[in-house]
Amino acid sequence: MQIYRLKINKNQCLGCNVCVVSCPINFNQLKQSSSRINESENSIDGINLLNSTSTSLPFPNESVDRILALESLQHVKHLENFISESKRILKKHGILAIAIPIVTKKITPIVDLGRLSMTWSSEHYTTDYIKLLLIDNGFKILELQNIGSMVYDPLTNYYIRNRDDVKNKILSKYPSYVEKILFKSLQKIKQLSEKNVIDYVLIKCETH
């Protein structure tokens, strides 16, 4: 896991300390992220890159105003550890914002997801499970939105409309079967979204 700690000046966000969490999945992504942060450090004061795990966030108690975990927590195996660590480092009334793909009920992946059980290899959390973890760890949920129809359908439709262009770019680096798997997976994502098997949730909560 990579964590960016960004101290934003008062003109930007009332002097907030913001913790941004991301999960690069291989060495190249780690290297690219580090390069981008190094570039940002030249233009933004107070931004730092840290490598850590979700079970031990390298910050003192009550030292962070906001934590943003966008499109990352589905890759965290023990979500409860991340939630409890977030509670520990957030100040009173600190904000935790989460964007995460979810399943709408407890599933048997190979049965309910089909080919996605292989291509969607991250965790399959439900909204109820995430809410329970947040509440049990002392968070108050301020806002929750299900936006799967605004994520999966447009993404798949865009790919279908622009498949030729995207396919050519993929084939310049990867074998043809990679593009075929991607295309079939996107079709399956749209199908499961329309059947309300999967969704995408935005959650904003604060510490008590």
TrEMBL record:
4Fe-4S ferredoxin-type domain sequence ranges: 4-33
Matching SUPFAM superfamilies: 4Fe-4S ferredoxins (SSF54862), S-adenosyl-L-methionine-dependent methyltransferases (SSF53335)
InterPro entries the record matches: 4Fe4S_Fe-S-bd, 4Fe4S_Fe_S_CS, Methyltransf_11, SAM-dependent_MTases_sf
GO molecular function: S-adenosylmethionine-dependent methyltransferase activity
A Pfam family this chain is assigned to: Methyltransf_11
Signal sequence bounds: none
Record's protein name: 4Fe-4S ferredoxin-type domain-containing protein
